[in-house]
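for the record, two folds in this file. i put them one after another cuz i was lazy. first one right below, seq on top, structure tokens after. the second one comes after a little note so u can tell where it starts
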Amino acid sequence: MKIELEILKKIKQFDTIIIHRHQSPDPDAIGSQSGLAAIIRASFPEKKVYQVGAPSAGLAWISDQDEIADDLYNDALVIVIDTANRPRIEDDRYTTGAYLIKLDHHPNEDVYGDLVWVKTGASSSSELVMDLVDQVEGGLTVTDDAARMLYAGIVGDTGRFMYSATTAHTMQVVAELMAYHFSTTKINQKMDNITAGVAKLSGYVYDNLVITEHKAAYVVLTHDYLDSIELGDAGSSQIVPLPGKIIEVQCWAIFVQQKDGSYRVRLRSKGPIINQLAKEHDGGGHPMASGARAKDQAEYEEIVKSLDDLARTYTGE
């Protein structure tokens, strides 16, 4: 049996389904999680379907999250979507269900779950959800709202179709979603709008960006500064692509200081492969887009040096 049908079989088997995603969510995490939940609800109205995780104010326009009691995990199917490794899964209760499915498009280096479907060629987990729908031949029903959420996820993870993971198949899926009744214009505008805080942060990034000798770049966003402009860790996500707009920059890192003094690290690249560097620092992800952690200034300086070395040895092939 092909894996898509195995997933559908498990969805049919359980009366309670709880869907998790990764911490510090982006549009694809929320879009794929909530889009899949909406599809299952429409397909099987008798089932109880929940999407769980800490609220994300900046992405509440895509979907809200559910607060549920621990005992709902008894005899529940748990689906973790868009999360490559276990430490990044939002809400540790994902281990307490009766059966666990992993759905993801990141490299499958942390193999967890009773059933695993990882498709690294997909642009996003939202695209993967539509692939599931299309492969089970009418077994799942897509609503207008589900299509809206999945569209937002794809637009977010492809950088508005600028990133190399965007394929002809991606555009076919987007065309399929656009046939539903929702406003792509409103979503595109929503994702393009920035707050006054993000505008200030954008100027700060360009003013304080350091470009190394070998065309790597980095900027450090302190916790105090983000607080001063009323912008937290999640709010800083919109400025991550900015260094890449500079012609001379080949790869870059955004260091976001946390309350405990450690740093969340967002790594991006136009060419050098950066996910191995991320894995060396408690992270991982795609070859051109990854995340990591630095426990202190010494570790973030180590990451900067390694990033510069990657840029130095990059041949353009």
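(here's the note) second protein begins now
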Amino acid sequence: MVNRTGERRVAGSWLGPRRPIEIATDGENGLRKTLSWPHLVGLGVGAIVGTGIYTLTGVGAERAGPAIILAFAVAGVVCACAALAYAEMATLMPTSGGAYTYTYSVLGETLAWIVGWSLILEYSLACSTVAVGWSGYLVGWMQSLGIYLPPAILAGPHAGGIVNLPAVAVALAIAGMLIAGTRESATFNIILVAIKLTALTAFVALALPAFDADKFTPFMPYGFGSEVIEGKTRGVMAAAAIVFFAFYGFDAVATSAEEARNPGRDLTIGILGSMAVCTLIYMFVAVSAIGAVNYLQLGTSAEPLAFVLRSLDHPFAAWAIGLAALIALPSVILVMMYGQSRIFFVMARDGLLPRFLSRVSPRSGAPTTITAVTGVFVAVVAGFFRLDEIAELANAGTLVAFIAVAVCMMVLRRRAPDLPRVFRCPQPYLIGTLATLGCIYLLISLPTHTLTRFAIWNVAGIAFYVLYSRTRSALGSKNDHPA
């Protein structure tokens, strides 16, 4: 922590030691303030629009029916509140590790471990989700060209296959790129964003004219909440708990505060504006899709948007949107896998994971060992599990991380109100409470089997922490007598 004289010391509590807070400054090495709110809105839209809308529209429609548009709205509001809290923490502590680091500094090592363990699910399983979604579009795209591969290598055991080989291949390929030190260029990202938005605009333009209002009756066939119907968890909140995945990426806006000309105004507009734009895009796509094809049919497709266009006799457009997904989605895997390897790296550097995992390549400067481990883990999960199951478990980890960030923001406002903050969340206790309660509601709206798996994952993680990490913690060894 930082005392009034600016001196750092290691603090502690019954939850373990707390890491000193690294505060953002505007010194000589600060970044130039070149971004205004339109830039931040554009950055957010580019980062957020991606995998979820291409791959989870069908899953969400199956769970909520036409009311999936409400599911997108609920998820967007919750994410906006979480993003505002995240922005304050990210700009106050601009260090690696994200929610894990914030929790370490504010709440202590024990809870930081739980958050870090949950982040493994967020990033790794998000990669796996995208890989499975990419595989679905690849199979549909190839079939549109008359190329049919053996079903046994296109799906895991849950669907009668052996392994989803395309999903495994793309995950390992991206891991190989990261190990080699490959980075996305800004120009490449802009091109991918343009492809994604153009494809979605074309989809709406082609599907909306076929809109049939009768397909929205009944509007909410499974109710608003989350309950098991016909053996599956259904309802608006059940759908919101999975389409929440579609809003990943807002941290790209939250971490740009140092470059914002007027952080207090521009960051608020940037976060809320990008969330509003993305929510509207998602709702338009959902309305167009369900208005054109019955939601029960939509829920059966691994590439729902291309399926709608084929159903409307637009084979070339279906082929093109499938190609757009194939081109754009791997970039999401790269970003997520990059983030996961850095979370692992920070935890290993802190001594909570084996230290050899924090080794970096002298040639590329990348943490090659942990990137390889991450790539193999992602590939195995993508090869053998279903899209919805992976996304649900990834969301569980993310929701815990978002809850931690909101709580950290409120605790630090109370504990250290005078710390210099580049960005101050408006109405911090209201926004923090809404983010916390909203994420808890989405978390308990996940299917029971997902929550059971998440609990098992955390029990295993706590056991690992007690038996290994706590005694090897680099910070804990400096603070045997917590304050």
